[in-house]
Design goal:
heterotrimer; A mainly alpha; B mainly alpha; C mainly alpha; B: mainly alpha; about 85% helix; about 0% strand; C: 2 domains; two-stranded antiparallel sheet; 2 strands
């Protein structure tokens, strides 16, 4: 028991150190500091740059990380591999801090990939199960393939701007924005699970739930948003990149919300919801509004971590994340119920949770982006419309999940559920409070606010009415339940192609490429067999050859002389 | 008599002898082939001795030497063949070698 | 000092060979460790600075040919020297066990010393002599101490449909194959050296200023066998997988570097004629990256897998060399050294597995090593992650610098060609991830089925593993240690416009 708290203390020390470092910068006073000067050869230096945005994300990561570590003592404390689990979380946090605070792009890349590795290790924490193994492998492969975009993008940035320091890059006029933007887009689409690389996130759900809350909701997947926000000044120079980003965001937010609506598994539904909400952030960024995007990042980080941790409490109680196993938990688990209610309200965008304010900021940014901003007016309007539609669906699925998890009658024969231990309820209470507290000081847009409230209310009402009428909120849409078969290429086609080409390569390697060495061995044997014929051991034959030789040489001598 | 006649005769003898040595399988006949070749050489020596009669006289001496050599050789050779025949009951060189 | 550093392992190695009946294996390995450590320390101390030839020795040798005993450490060779000596030490440490044959230690010492001699030579003929000297002992190592397999269960089918590739290759035939390939390469190399020497009337690396195209082609071919570049690589998987653990490690960590080091010095010495060959080297390198990655994806034998992955890593090095830029050189040296450490670690660990299970077949070893042998599994995953090029570990910087060198094109390759090659190399990185993830999944993860021979790392294995892990992390976090030896500007400002 004591050793478990040791890791909490370690994490807490880390979090406090980061907080002490970050809080002074919350007022928007950016500071760049070079800790280790690069040797001018690679151009890599250990430099940090902390501004308001970075400070906020640092605090979010440190806070959620600490809460998750506390939560895990109860959730996974008895697991035989708790030690490696807790250590990897700490490594993950270090990676996240490196990404957020780095001024040098290579330091950022190191953090970025370390996060990916930790995500891989943690998703695969339950590596005895096939589903966790394949989920982990898929997440790692998809994000790492996408990360190559970042790697090449960094090379292009370095070549274009002559430096790998973000602060120095941003100090220059935007150059080569389209190429850089497209490459970075590949990376963030992968890391933040956007269309068409979105399918890994729902499959990452076999990971322990606290990890999902930390990595796959609050921090790592949001790193893509953070990266775009950080480099937005050079990316806005390219209309193509911003339009593409907006369209990707629009497609992803709608798909994510639709898929979330039909899930039969609470955790997977929340994963789709994360995909959809990340797309909201990208939509704001594509309209050129970094503040709206990052504000939503923070608020989403808080309320989605709350929802996942709450989901963990429910899973702890009923032993499954399937919605069919839940229901009737309102009275059994009051703390979890009320906290998650707040979380769902924030997801749906109900006043006065932080989700309401930040979603409105996103909508306002899009609406504003119609007139000025990097997007063509039509695209901005389209994305605005889709975002409203998504808000509607979001409110609907949040309500549905809330109903199915807590309010519908409990399934027959389930063992009695109990409230989670205090180490688990504590963190979700903190996050629930944060969901309100973060609202303070958020911008308020009256027109948009009214509109979005109406939309959200409509979404909630539709589900509630359906529930009253039919006692059933499931949508029968097989094409949605199968998630539009978008995972086919990654689950079937690419692995099959790789397997068959690998087999072909191995065959060619053995029978084709190796032919020249095998062939030369054969040729040598053939020649030696021919030469061996001469060495018959028959003296008469040797003598014949000698005689013939003498004759030939004599004749030659005579003729030529 | 022109030099050509004995030379042609000698070449023919040498050719027949060579053929006998190379192609015959019977050890006795191979020995005879060797004898033929020796005698072809003898004929050559005598012919050139006669042709260069007033300059060199070594041809006849060498011929006599060769005849003795041939006699010794055939004696030794036939003895070997006899020993061979006693040992393996054949004088066919291929069959002997094949064992 | 360099002379001493070369002589000590040679003498100790020969002594162990001749007195093999008189010493115990454990003692022999300790002796070897001491000798290699001495060499390592001497080579570390010999360094005088990157602009000089450190510890130069120059004595007349064969006057009529112009060959001299000319030794010294340059900025190009010093990292190779240290890495080779380091790996040599670890190999000897690895052999500190009761069942070690003293002669094997002796051969390991001779191989290491010969390789050190290659890197330390400043005379082409001396270089060649050392180059050849390393071969023969390696033949004995593979042929005598190689796995006398018992086919590694090739007739089973692992469900994913992969047949086990190796037909029945015995250690002896693998060794002979290795010898024939490399000796053929060496023959070409020798002809090339003669051409160069005739052209510039000198054998000294410090004096040669170019050579005819034919020489460049021959020398590159010679080194390409050793590196190896596709399609001259077919000796490698057999030799690596059949060799004993230290043999595999020396082959991968040291022998392949003889090839890359040779290519590096060729590119600097024969720069003009090498430029004509460079595009083909780049092409072969990149084909190798993709080719080997796909081949790895279908392997069942872990040692074969690692052997194929070496081809891919050497592909990156070849790509870097072919750009003929300063960054390319730095990338090649870094990539070589990092590969030596990372692949060395991988081979040591697969050797541990082979010691326990008698085979490196992943199917036979079985799943769930995380639970069965936790530290071994963790070390393996670490090595795999380092090998797939995770930033922050040694394997990354070599690849990154290669890609950067290709991106910045240089003067030799044309831009479309270089960027195409770059694209394929990036694809290769992705494929590399795929096969290592597969290997981790097959070995480390999964429902554990305990076997009697499950045994975690013992002391010597831990020492070797820890030393390599530490060096991989140090190089990963401080790439400047090696890159700092080469002067190039951080970035060429404004060199590229879209």
């Amino acid at each position: 028991m004591r050793s478990r708290w040791l890791y909490v203390v370690l994490t807490a020390a880390l979090a406090v150190a980061v907080a002490v470092w970050a809080i002074p910068h919350l007022d928007g006073d950016p500071s760049t500091k070079v800790w280790v000067e690069g040797n001018d050869l690679l151009g890599i230096s250990l430099a940090t740059h902390v501004d308001r945005l970075a400070a906020q994300v640092l605090l979010l990561a440190a806070g959620v990380g600490l809460l998750v570590q506390i939560y895990s003592t109860a959730y996974l404390g008895h697991h035989p591999r708790y030690r490696s689990y807790a250590l990897v979380i700490i490594l993950f946090l270090l990676g996240m801090f490196a990404v957020v605070a780095a001024d040098d792009l290579f330091v950022l890349l190191i953090g970025w990939e370390v996060m990916g590795l930790c995500s891989y290790l943690l998703i695969g924490h339950e590596w005895e199960t096939a589903i966790a193994r394949s989920g982990a492998a898929k997440a790692f492969l998809m994000t790492r393939v996408a990360d190559l975009g970042l790697l090449v993008g960094i090379l292009v940035i370095g070549q274009t701007y002559g430096t790998y320091r973000i602060s120095e890059v941003l100090a220059q006029e935007p150059k080569n924005a389209t190429a850089i933007g497209l490459l970075l887009l590949v990376a963030v689409v992968g890391k933040s699970a956007q269309f068409p690389l979105h399918t890994w996130l729902p499959d990452a759900m076999p990971g322990p739930t606290p990890i999902t809350a930390l990595i796959h909701a609050a921090t790592m997947v949001a790193a893509g948003v953070y990266l775009v926000a950080r480099l937005l000044p050079i990316l806005v120079a390219s209309e193509l990149v911003m339009t593409l980003l907006a369209l990707i965001a629009a497609v992803t937010m709608l798909l994510g919300a639709l898929f979330a609506l039909v899930q039969s598994d609470l955790k997977r539904a929340l994963a789709w919801s994360t995909v959809s909400q990340l797309a909201f952030m990208f939509a704001a960024l594509s309209a050129g509004d970094a503040d709206a995007g990052s504000d939503h990042l923070l608020s989403h980080g808080a309320f989605k971590a709350l929802l996942f941790l709450g989901c963990g409490c429910v899973m702890h109680a009923v032993g499954s994340s399937a919605l069919s196993a839940m229901g009737g938990l309102r009275l059994r688990m009051p703390v979890t119920f009320w906290s998650m209610t707040i979380g769902f309200a924030a997801l749906a965008g109900v006043v006065p949770t932080v989700g309401f304010f930040t979603k409105d900021s996103v909508l306002a940014a899009l609406e504003h982006g119609r007139e000025d901003g990097p997007l063509p007016g039509g695209v901005a309007l389209l994305v605005f419309g889709i975002a409203l539609l998504t808000s509607f669906i979001t409110a609907a699925y949040a309500t549905r999940l809330w109903l199915l998890a807590f309010l519908v009658p409990a399934p027959e024969g389930r063992a009695e559920a109990h409230e989670a231990p205090r180490a688990m309820t504590g963190p979700i209470i903190v996050l629930a409070v944060a969901t309100f507290a973060l609202s303070i000081g958020q911008p308020f847009h009256l027109g948009i606010g009214v509109l979005s409230t109406v939309v959200a209310a409509a979404g909630i009402a539709v589900v509630l009415v359906a529930w009253k009428r039919r006692r059933d909120v499931d949508l029968a849409a097989p094409w949605l339940i199968s998630e539009l078969w978008l995972d086919r290429p990654y689950a079937l086609w690419i692995p099959a192609t790789m397997r068959s080409s690998a087999r072909a390569i191995v065959d060619v390697d053995r029978d084709g490429i190796d032919a020249y060495s095998q062939g030369s061995a054969g040729a040598a044997q053939l020649v030696s067999r021919i030469l061996a014929l001469v060495q018959s051991g028959n003296v008469q034959r040797y003598a014949t050859v000698i005689a013939a030789g003498v004759i030939v040489f004599t004749a030659a001598a005579v003729v030529l002389a | 008599m022109p030099l050509l006649y004995p030379l042609v005769l000698s070449a023919a003898l040498f050719g027949i002898g060579l053929y006998g040595v190379l192609a015959r399988r019977n050890a006795v006949l191979m020995l005879l082939g060797v004898e033929l070749m020796l005698n072809a050489v003898n004929l050559n020596l005598v012919a050139f001795d006669a042709w260069f009669a007033d300059q060199i006289h070594t041809g006849q001496v060498l011929t006599l030497f060769t005849i003795t050599l041939a006699a010794a050789e055939i004696g030794l050779g036939l003895a070997i063949v006899l020993a061979l025949f006693r040992a393996v009951r054949t004088v066919d060189v291929d069959e002997v070698g094949a064992e | 000092m360099i002379t001493a550093a070369l002589t000590i392992p040679f003498v100790v190695g020969l002594a162990l060979l001749f007195l093999r009946k008189l010493v115990a294996g454990r003692t022999a390995a300790w002796l070897g460790t001491v000798a290699m450590t001495a060499a390592l320390v001497l080579f570390a101390l010999v360094w005088e600075g990157k602009d000089k030839i450190s510890g130069e020795v120059d004595v007349a040798w064969i006057d009529p040919l112009g060959a001299r005993l000319h030794l010294g450490a340059t900025a190009l060779s010093w990292p190779f020297l240290l890495m080779t000596a380091f790996i040599g030490v670890l190999c000897c440490v690895w052999l500190i066990a009761d069942d070690t044959a003293p002669a094997l230690v002796g051969l390991v010492l001779i191989i290491s010393a010969s390789s050190l001699g290659v890197f330390a030579s400043l005379d082409l003929l001396l270089f060649f002599v050392f180059f050849e000297l390393a071969l023969i002992p390696m033949w004995f190592v593979i042929a005598w101490w190689g796995s006398s397999t018992v086919r590694s269960s090739g007739h089973l089918d692992d469900g994913s449909g992969f047949k086990n590739v190796p037909a029945e290759v015995t250690a002896r035939s693998a060794a002979t194959r290795f010898l024939l390939f490399t000796v053929t390469g060496s023959a070409l190399l020798l002809v090339g050296i003669v051409l160069v020497a005739r052209d510039s009337r000198s054998l000294q690396l410090t004096e040669i200023g170019g050579g005819p195209l034919a020489a460049a082609i021959l020398i590159v071919l010679g080194f390409a066998v050793k590196t190896p570049l596709v399609p001259l690589h077919t000796w490698l998987p057999d030799a690596h997988s059949k060799a004993p653990t230290v043999g595999s490690v020396l082959l991968a960590a040291v022998f392949l570097k003889l090839g890359t080091y040779g290519l590096i010095i060729t590119s600097t010495l024969l720069s003009e004629s090498f430029a004509d060959v460079a595009p083909y080297v780049a092409g072969a390198g990149v084909v190798g990256i993709i080719w080997s990655a796909l081949a790895c994806y279908a392997q069942d034998d872990l040692k074969r897998l690692i052997a194929f992955s070496s081809i891919g890593h050497m592909g990156f090095v070849a790509l870097a060399i072919s750009t003929m830029t300063d960054i390319g050189i730095a990338a090649a040296v870094f990539g070589s050294v990092a590969h030596g450490l990372v692949t060395g670690l991988l081979f040591f660990l697969s050797g541990s597995l082979k010691d326990r299970f008698g085979t490196a077949s992943m199917r036979v070893i079985g799943r769930g090593l995380y639970a069965r042998t936790p530290w071994l599994a963790v070390a393996f995953v670490f090595a795999a992650v380092a090998s797939l090029g995770l930033p922050g570990l040694a394997g990354f910087w070599g690849e990154l610098l290669s890609l950067r060198a290709a991106y910045e094109v240089g003067d030799v390759l044309s831009k479309p060609y270089a960027w195409t090659v770059l694209g394929f190399a990036v694809l290769g990185v992705a494929l590399t991830t795929a096969y290592f993830v597969r290997a981790i999944r097959l070995l480390a993860q999964g429902e554990p089925v305990a076997q009697d021979v499950d045994r975690d790392l013992d002391l010597r294995e831990s020492v070797v593993g820890f030393a390599l892990v530490a060096s991989i992390v140090v190089l990963g976090l401080a790439p400047g240690l090696i890159v700092g030896l080469y002067d190039f500007q951080p970035v060429a400002v404004g060199a590229v416009t879209p």
